[in-house]
């Protein structure tokens, strides 16, 4: 009922590193520092470690489910819960992937509008980005993988720029080291987890990886690398800003770029934000690809027409969200759904799958 | 790719080309380089924008252009200034913001807020407090041939390296937002055809409460940050003048808490080369020791006096509170209560070597 993709459509196991990492680094990194600091102060870096560790655990859970099912989430759902209930859950999953792409796109366009082009209306950016994403996604999964690989490659040089704020560093800011209660740290970890969301797309593209079980270690590396990037970013931000100052800075990473002093550019933010587009493009592409692929598996529509529908939806919803409050609300809703999905639904699914497979065998 | 797709692809860029934001040509905008704020009354303040125009022609010198307006907010002032200007005002390259002393004494919260909120303002921007009206400083002619704005920026920037602690918008904001430190800014004044940096303005929260002299600003720098290539003059007990050149300094603040009582100590390591001792034998070890002692005494005495004054005013520009906060047993309420009476020691350790090319 759910055929696996052909061998020539698959990618090598190590590409999982890029796919997972690209999904985890998105718009969140431009401003996550403020959110975790508001709850846990400058001890919040511990929250990055703890939530990162929990994600590694969840990747382990995901691979147990996927290795056993040896197919994507749609097929696994159908196998465990039957056509109708399983189909319903799969549909929720692909709506979530779509919403993920929507949040990333809309938040990035907001940054563009506030920082670079206040006089251009948002639908123009939305249109250009969707057009680009559409043309990549129609190329198939291999092209999407290529985009995420390039996205990471283009984004990495931005790390060098951290050198400038470090000249103003005040390393004493980090002291005293443990200055938050366990409850505060837990809350901050929860908020930090939102930045690690996106690895769930693994449930959709797993069959497209040659020798799936072998890719597990690359998934771990991907998460570890994300943890490293988040830690480094948080470290530089913490030593550069005063705690109270950071609490009022919406896009801390962008504000950090304001101190960059290059001979040819006065405002490095403009370059940084443009380069950052390559880091968020894979998020949108993978999200759209997963959503349209899911539609194709669930309903008798081709992936291309499903993609077109999603692109249209993406455009209209993005344009309808006009102010910060709405974007914030959407962001919160999607991240809450994601949070409960990974922490509650995935372990439940693992147990359920284990029991049902046992029963079926017997 | 079929024909339909091809058409679609080529059409979109053409359609979108009309949506690009209007380009900004350098000759068609009014680039503001300095901003000055002056006190009018409790509600309103006066804003001055200084920019320069280069008239057409090959060897033409930049012409100073100054706009002034009064209003309750920076945005209102900007609108009024825009009404006077022949070209659109652009603030992306502002390098210096001058606050008049009277305005600073009444608080600069509104102006700081508008500066940090604007995405087109950088963080390397220099802020200063002026003794005269900011407008008079921007709207005047100096002996240099550069544009006035550039001249003002250069004077302040050069001093930040050598004589007063480094502070730009970012540093100011760090102190301004900190619950355990207060900000400070360079103080400038006009002297004939020159602008000069004449010390530091010390703030308590967002209000100017004190100014310190140029000489004390140097002591402040020694206590505040690590630096090299400084210079320090001192008079020895015998009345001879001697100077330490190529001075490098490294301060360290230590805060101790015993039985709920805070004490703080500055440990300053200064080293430099002794020069310009006319009647002194700089090869003699004893002379060098005398110089070291004299410099140590000078730094300690002046620093103690300055720190006492800060304590009396209950302001903490040297961020001793930040250091206290780094202790795990820090209690902000206790600290605030004790700060003005607490004991703050200053220990200077001077190391001088003889130099010069003549023995």
List its salient traits.
heterodimer; A: 362 residues; mainly alpha; Amino acid/polyamine transporter I; 73% helix; 0% strand; globular; B: 359 residues; alpha/beta; 11 helices; germination (chain B)
Radius of gyration of chain A: 20 Å
Instruction: Please tally the helical runs of chain B, counting DSSP H or I stretches of 4 or more residues.
Output: 11
Low-confidence stretches of chain B: none
- Total number of strands of chain A: 0
Q: Level of helix content of chain B?
A: 25-40%
DSSP helix fraction of chain A: over 70%
Largest sheet properties of chain A: none
Spell out the helices and strands of chain A N to C: HHHHHHHHHHHHHHH
Average pLDDT score of chain B: 83
Distance between the termini of chain B: 86 Å
CATH architecture of chain A: Up-down Bundle
User: What is the fold-level CATH name, i.e. the topology of chain A?
Assistant: Amino acid/polyamine transporter I
**SSE arrangement of chain B, N to C:** HEEEHEEHHEHHHEEEHEEEHHHE
Q: What structural category characterises the helix and strand content of chain B?
A: alpha/beta
- Note the overall shape of chain B: globular
Indicate the topology:
The complex is a heterodimer of chains A (362) and B (359).
Chain A lengths: L14 H10 L7 H9 L4 H25 L3 H44 L5 H16 L3 H15 L7 H4 L15 H15 L5 H4 L10 H25 L2 H5 L4 H5 L11 H31 L4 H18 L3 H38 L1
Chain B lengths: L2 H14 L13 E10 L5 E9 L9 E9 L2 H11 L4 E2 L5 E5 H5 L3 H9 L8 E5 L3 H5 L9 H15 L6 H9 L6 E8 L2 E11 L2 E7 H11 L2 E9 L5 E18 L2 E15 L9 H28 L7 H6 L6 H7 L4 E12 L5
Parallel strand pairs in B: 1-4, 1-5, 5-6, 6-7, 12-13
Antiparallel strand pairs in B: 1-2, 2-3, 7-8, 8-9, 10-11, 11-12
């Amino acid at each position: 009922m759910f055929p696996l993709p052909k061998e020539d459509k698959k990618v090598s196991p190590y590409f999982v590193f890029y796919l997972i990492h690209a999904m985890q680094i998105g718009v969140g990194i431009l401003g996550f520092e403020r959110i975790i600091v508001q709850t846990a102060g400058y001890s919040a870096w511990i929250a990055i470690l703890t939530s990162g560790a929990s994600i590694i655990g969840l990747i382990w859970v995901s691979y147990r489910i996927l290795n056993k099912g040896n197919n994507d989430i749609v097929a696994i759902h159908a196998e465990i819960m039957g056509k109708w209930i399983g189909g319903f859950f799969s549909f929720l999953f692909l709506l979530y992937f779509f919403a993920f792409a929507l949040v990333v796109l809309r938040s990035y366009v907001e940054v563009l509008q506030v920082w670079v082009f206040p006089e251009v209306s948002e639908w123009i950016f939305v249109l250009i980005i969707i057009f680009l994403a559409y043309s990549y996604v129609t190329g198939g999964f291999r092209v999407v993988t290529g985009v995420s690989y390039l996205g990471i490659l283009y984004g990495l040089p931005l790390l060098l720029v951290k050198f400038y704020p470090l000249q103003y560093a005040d390393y004493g800011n980090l002291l005293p080291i443990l200055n938050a209660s366990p409850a505060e740290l837990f809350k901050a970890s929860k908020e930090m987890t939102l930045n690690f969301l996106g690895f769930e797309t693994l449930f959709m593209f797993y069959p497209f990886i040659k020798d799936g079980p072998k890719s597990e270690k690359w998934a771990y590396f991907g998460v570890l690398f994300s943890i490293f990037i988040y830690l480094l970013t948080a470290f530089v931000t913490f030593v550069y800003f005063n705690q109270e100052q950071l609490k009022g800075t919406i896009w801390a990473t962008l504000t950090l770029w304001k101190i960059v002093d290059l001979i040819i550019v006065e405002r490095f933010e403009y370059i940084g934000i443009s380069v950052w587009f390559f880091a968020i493009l894979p998020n949108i592409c993978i999200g759209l690809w997963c959503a349209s692929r899911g539609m194709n598996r669930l309903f008798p529509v081709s992936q291309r027409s499903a993609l077109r529908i999603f692109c249209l939806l993406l455009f209209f919803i993005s344009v309808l969200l006009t102010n910060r409050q709405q974007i914030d609300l959407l962001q919160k809703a999607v991240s809450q759904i994601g949070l409960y999905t990974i922490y509650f639904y995935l372990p439940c699914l693992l147990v359920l799958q284990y029991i049902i497979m046992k029963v079926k065998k017997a | 790719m079929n024909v339909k797709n091809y058409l679609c692809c080529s059409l979109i860029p053409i359609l979108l080309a009309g949506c690009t934001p209007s380009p900004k040509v350098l000759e068609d905008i009014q680039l503001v380089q300095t901003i000055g704020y002056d006190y009018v009354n409790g509600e309103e303040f006066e804003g001055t924008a200084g920019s320069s125009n280069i008239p057409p022609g090959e060897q033409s010198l930049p012409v100073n252009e100054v706009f002034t307006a009064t209003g309750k907010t920076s945005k209102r002032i900007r609108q009024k200034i825009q009404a006077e200007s022949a070209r659109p005002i652009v603030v992306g390259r502002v390098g210096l913001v001058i606050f008049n002393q009277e305005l600073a004494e009444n608080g600069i919260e509104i102006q700081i807020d508008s500066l940090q909120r604007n995405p087109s303002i950088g963080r390397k921007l220099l802020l200063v407090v002026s003794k005269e009206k900011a407008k008079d400083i921007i709207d005047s002619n100096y002996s240099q041939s550069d544009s006035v704005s550039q001249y003002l920026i250069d004077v302040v920037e050069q001093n930040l390296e050598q004589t007063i602690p480094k502070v730009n918008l970012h540093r100011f904001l760090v102190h301004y937002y900190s619950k355990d430190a207060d900000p400070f800014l360079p103080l400038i004044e006009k002297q004939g055809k020159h602008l000069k940096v004449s010390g530091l303005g010390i703030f308590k929260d967002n209000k100017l409460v004190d100014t310190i002299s140029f000489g004390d600003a140097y002591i402040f720098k020694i206590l505040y940050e690590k630096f090299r290539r400084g210079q320090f003059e001192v008079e020895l007990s015998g009345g001879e003048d001697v100077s330490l050149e190529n001075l490098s300094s490294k301060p360290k603040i230590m805060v101790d808490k015993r039985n709920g009582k805070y004490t703080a100590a500055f440990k300053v390591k200064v080293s430099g080369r002794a020069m310009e001792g006319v009647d002194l034998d700089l090869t003699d070890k004893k002379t060098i020791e005398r110089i070291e002692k004299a410099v140590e005494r000078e730094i300690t005495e002046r620093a103690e006096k300055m720190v006492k004054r800060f304590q009396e005013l209950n302001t903490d520009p040297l961020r001793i509170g930040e250091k206290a906060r780094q202790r795990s047993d820090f209690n902000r309420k206790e600290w605030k209560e004790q700060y003005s009476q607490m004991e703050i020691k200053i220990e200077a350790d001077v190391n001088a070597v003889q130099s010069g090319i003549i023995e």
